[in-house]
Specification:
Number of strands: 16
CATH class of the largest domain: Alpha Beta
Strand content: 15-25%
CATH architecture of the largest domain: 4-Layer Sandwich
């Protein structure tokens, strides 16, 4: 059932930002974006409003694309991506079958991303100099009390609500995120990581046909703020204060909760203070009105790391106490190697140590990535050499691509010749 009396406020901004630096390897802005506050009309590019806009029956849509590749090809790929989104989100394309449910909308977004990928690849056929160009893409569709997000790459979507604070909606498709998923490095250690520029899924990836976008459906709550951004922001300003950086996305949003324009400006200022090196795109949308309040049980699903450590210490202590109690009077001063080894295994199990490893890309693969991006050098960084410049984003061709478990629904990836098909 459609939810009525919902108002939206939207603000959007994109800037070449760190690429104004004379030492930047690329000039200009390779980011692109689109905001459509009302999908039921013919006005596609309303980028900001200080007035609350009633949500229409079709809702609103926001999209960000961050291009990569040499010879200005990244800018071209991002433009193709946003043009594709604009075409398929015209109100006459959004049939009742498309908008019927969160599942049908997720399927539609997935197929739009697949079509954008096809067009980016097709654009390289007649332009050899654009070989290797690609782009991230993330699309958010808000309709009634539902949020649907689909993405490829490392452009991000977040949700902020005073009840839960800031929580990520999307999960990056990057090499360093795979390391985080494996427990090899922490979130803090992704900042400044030597392979932080390697994107494992993107539009234009020649080894992924079709690509494997992810999606997620969430409920919209009263007072929700949706932040969408390119890695020019999220790559230099952490979600919460950490890594020696006093600025954080959560703090800035909380401090400017009632003023989206000021919030956007403060986010850009924080990126600049933290040595921005790339384009920065920021999209913000706040929803208020006839919406449920976020229940307390939805509050921050990401466990506080200090609480996590405390829980692990308690669990280990309980296990150790139980172990020694079970031995009772059998405990002697003589070391018992076998029992000690068994306890070590129990300890590792409690800590959920993951023995899986991720093999870093070889020097040759890193160099191939840089060459594809049009930025190869004779001194390709290795695992132990100086970090690759963060703005030299590349498409990885070696990391295994696997859809994340968050995608629970099976999506039909077919795109017919007449457009995007939704069953």
């Amino acid at each position: 059932m459609a939810v009525k009396n919902i108002s939206l406020k939207l603000v959007a901004y994109s800037d070449a930002a760190g690429k104004f630096d004379a030492n930047a390897p690329l000039n200009g802005n390779e980011d692109n974006f689109m905001v459509d506050a009302d999908l039921s009309d013919d006005v596609a590019y309303l980028t900001s409003t200080s007035e609350a806009i009633p949500m229409s029956d079709l809702g609103c849509m926001m999209a960000v694309a961050d291009g990569m590749g040499g010879q200005n090809a990244g800018e071209v790929a991002a433009e193709i991506a946003i043009e594709t989104v604009a075409e398929f989100f015209k109100h006459d394309r959004l049939t009742p079958e498309v908008v019927a449910s969160p599942k049908s909308r997720a399927k539609y977004i997935t197929n739009v991303i697949i079509e954008a990928d096809r067009r980016v690849k097709a654009a390289t056929v007649d332009h050899p100099e654009r070989q290797g160009m690609g782009s991230t893409i993330i699309i958010t569709w808000i309709k009634d009390d539902d949020i649907t997000v689909g993405w490829l790459g490392d452009s991000r979507a977040y949700r902020y609500n005073p009840v839960c604070g800031l929580e990520p909606i999307s999960v990056d498709h990057t090499y360093v995120q795979e390391l985080v998923n494996k427990g090899i490095i922490t979130y803090d250690e992704t900042f400044g990581h030597p392979q932080g520029n390697i994107v494992t899924r993107s539009l234009g990836d020649p080894l992924a046909t079709p690509p494997s976008p992810e999606h997620v459906n969430l409920k919209l709550y009263n007072g929700d703020i949706i932040l969408m951004c390119s890695d020019g922001l999220s790559g230099v300003v952490p979600d919460r204060p950490s890594h020696g950086i006093s600025d954080s996305l959560e703090t800035i949003i909380a401090d400017n909760y009632d003023d989206l324009a000021t919030m956007r400006a403060k986010l850009m200022e924080a990126a600049e203070r933290n040595q921005w090196y790339d384009n920065v795109t920021v999209l913000l949308c706040r929803a208020d009105g006839d919406l449920p309040k976020m229940p307390a049980k939805e509050a921050r699903k990401t466990l506080n790391p200090f609480r996590l450590i405390l829980c692990l210490i308690i669990l280990i202590g309980i296990a150790a106490g139980a172990y020694f109690l079970s031995r009772g009077s059998d405990v002697t001063d003589e070391p018992e190697t076998e029992d000690a080894e068994n306890f070590a295994l129990t300890d590792s199990t409690l800590l959920e140590v993951n023995s899986d490893t991720v093999t870093p890309p070889s020097d040759s693969i890193l160099k191939a990535n840089l060459e594809r991006a049009g930025k190869a050098t004779d001194n390709t960084p290795s695992q132990t050499s100086q970090p690759v410049q963060p703005n030299e984003k590349t498409i990885d061709t070696d990391v295994t691509r696997q859809p994340a478990p968050a995608v629970a629904e099976e999506i039909n990836d077919s795109v017919n010749e007449e457009g995007i098909e939704v069953e």
